Amino acid sequence: MNYTDKLAVLKKIYKIYDSMANTWSTACRRYCAACCTCNVTMTTLEGDLIAEELAAKDKTDLFDRLNTVSDNRRFLPGITTNRLAELCVQGQAIPDEESDPHWGECSLLVDNQCPLYPVRPFGCRCFVSTTDCRINGYADVDPFVISVNNLFLQYIEHIDAGNFFGNMTDILIFINTTAHRQGIRENVPKQASGSLIVNQPLKVLLTPPEHREKISPILNALLQIQDDYV
Question: Can you tell me the mean pLDDT for 109-132?
Answer without folding.
Answer: 88
